[in-house]
What does this fold into?
Amino acid sequence: MIQAEGLTKRYGAFTAVDGLDLDVPAGQIFGFLGPNGAGKTTTIRMLVGLLRPTAGRVRIDGIDLAEDPLAARARVAYLPDTPYLYEKLTGREFIHFVGGLYRVPPERVERLIGELLPLFGLADRADDLIEGYSHGMRQKTVLAAALAHDPKVLFLDEPTVGLDPRSARLLRDILRQMADRGATVFLSTHILEIAERMCDRIGIIDHGRLIALGTVEDLHRQADRSASLEDIFLELTGGAAEAEIAGMLR
Amino acid sequence: MAVGATASAAGEGDPVTAPAGGPADFGRTVGRLMAARWRIAWNSLRRSARWRRVMYAVVAAAVVFLTLASLAVSYVMTRLIVNLVGTEQAPQADVIVAAAFTGGVMLSFMVSFTVALAALYLSRDLDLLLTAPIARPAVFASKLLGGLVPAHAVILGVTLVPLVGHGMAMGYGRGYYLTVLAALGVLPLLPVSIGAVAVVLIVLRVSAQRLGEVVGLIVVAMTLSLALVAGGARQLREAVTLSDMVTFLERLRAPYSPAEWLTTAVTAAGRGQWGDVATWLGLAAVVALVAIVPLAKVSDAVYYESWLHMQSTAHRDLQRRSRLPWARVEDAAALGRPSGWFRWLAPPVVAVMRKDFRVIPRDLTSMAQVLSPLAIGVFFVLQQLLYPVRIGGSDVAHAFTTPLLVMLSGAVATGVSAMIMSRFGLTAFSLEGKAYWLVRGAPISRRELVAAKFLVAYVPYVLLGTGLIALLELARAFADARTFGGPIGAGMLRAAEPGLVAYAWFVMAVLGVGVVAINLAIGAARPNLRWDTPHEMLTPDVGCLSLVLYGGYSFVAGMTLALPAATSRFTVLRGATPLWVLGLVLGLALTALVAAGAWWVATGEVDAIGE
Ligand SMILES: Nc1ncnc2c1ncn2[C@@H]1O[C@H](COP(=O)(O)OP(=O)(O)O)[C@@H](O)[C@H]1O
Ligand SMILES: [Mg+2]
It folds into this structure.
């Protein structure tokens, strides 16, 4: 469903993403794991067409993103890490606006708002301007809007950062449901627990390169069987030095 | 003191310092805050130099041209007055100096008020700055200076040039020019102080949401008084002879105005009367320095309190807003449903348009920028109503000048609407700001996006232009009806010119296409998504380029389209239909060319925005 071939992004001499090959099949939740600055956001922005790759190509549902961007984008929803929204729209207006952009009938959007916002605890704030929303409320608003056009592929960049435990749990259930219905979920995170509990498959990225790929069990098998995902992650991403620093501070 | 010293020693390169006493510390803090601001501006300026260079060349050429023109006008006017009076020392020529200083003071005052409002209350980083351990007067001073210094660089430049032209014409020596520089240093202090203190005090009393209305009222009041002064001088109506003009300008001089003190000082310097220079420049300087006192007084506790007050009222208004009609459920759904007038457009286009039509009016700063051009429109309507233009100094409307007057109404309506809507065209893409990821990631084509943004500026342009033409023509017909005598209604019907008005409207609508398209293209090529305060959306160089290009276009196209119609009843030109047709073809062709070029640029550039 999501295919990337030799995806590369350079900023001057600096290579943020380096020859990434990925193939995520439909119906899966794919966890994209990596330390800060590894290139997760850059990769996702290329996959959704917000950033032109220096090299490589992206296919969504078999459609080349560079050749037919509109058709590809219509199948995709994206939840950025810092959701900048229009401060002067209300939450409800925002969701209808996104619905309009994706050509979703307003009746369907309204039904979705009626179902989703109470779940998110946003129902009584739906008619307030977004400028008064917290980070988590903004994320939930974007998520609700993203679900409006029933995307085949959902990209989420660090989705759990601003969410309270209840909403995080809700997010997990929603994503699982979507995957069960055949959608593909691609989420990035630097929190291992989330990756372990939510994802069917995990890719670990560091310094722009994919250094491990497989199910949680695969990764365990590759490393020492008893090692926790944290140990695997730290070892792969050279975190031993960081563990030492932690020791020093203690 | 010790606390401040250690804090600033520890915070290398960190703009935040602990509050401490002493003017030196205050100065340092202001300096750092300003330096951070300028660095941001400088960094964004350095990006993609090629475009900038072209832009600077065009803008620099325009500035040079305008400078030379204004220098020449002031030089020639001065010489004409001197020749008229017949003596080289002609005190009558002082009106040129007075006009320059009066204009400078008035511009400074207008700018101070709106800039102070935007800089002191509507910047997004104020939360950070006012809660950080920085002396509040330093925040106040840096915000005010950051907003006012660029504006005043322009204002002082505009004031300086005619003064130099006058000095050259009078053959004044070095003392004159030095005094001019000193006077220009004094000039902004009083208006800035009055403007900023007034803003602080008003915000302390009224809610921020209502502040836009307050600004509007003040601007309207200013134009009203302008209109009355201008009309009060009956000479303006027949301002055909130079002596009438001089008398008119003389009447604008008020002995209590600081502009007048500066005028006296500067002209005295030209004549070598140094005692007068010291007296009047001294007086202006003392008053200006005294005016700084209330500014310093409000810069700490009062400013903070007013800011808090605005925050809380803003919040209250926000809560209340949810019960306003536009927040109804069906209304929100309109964003995604092409209905009514929008039926024929694609849903993404409608979504973007309706979104912009909601977002823009809800933003106080974007509305504040509309007010001054709008006030100019109001000024012209009042002027037309109270003191109708009568060509040839006669009180009777001449049939053959009517087309000229109708086209003039069209020109005013076009000018005012273009001033307002060019801004929205120019910032159409910048307006999306950091939320641009949303539109860019959505399945909306480049053409749809550009078309939506075009309509967002063009539709209000036509509505506003239509309203203004209607008002101006009603005012003209009313004024004519009064001079005819008899019942007003019948007189107005007799004065009405439906055919000509329709043609003026047509020209206005055509010119709008070009004006909005030009601005859209510039805005797509040079978007600025990194603003924090809406008034930073537009960078000055882009604004100047836009003014030069759309001003040039609308002048040329407007002349070819409207001049044949305006002169159609002049006896010498009677039966000049071919001329009219030629103008129409040329004007429409130019507009089509401009619009196609702009479309090509905008659709080409829109994909690269936001990378
Ligand atoms: N516009 C840019 N210019 C230069 N470097 C960038 C830019 N955007 C990101 N980078 C660099 O690319 C690397 C990857 O960034 P990012 O994808 O945001 O990491 P993360 O995995 O934390 O999301 C970082 O080192 C970052 O500094
Ligand atoms: Mg990131």
Q: What stands out?
A: DSSP finds 23 helices and no strands in chain B.
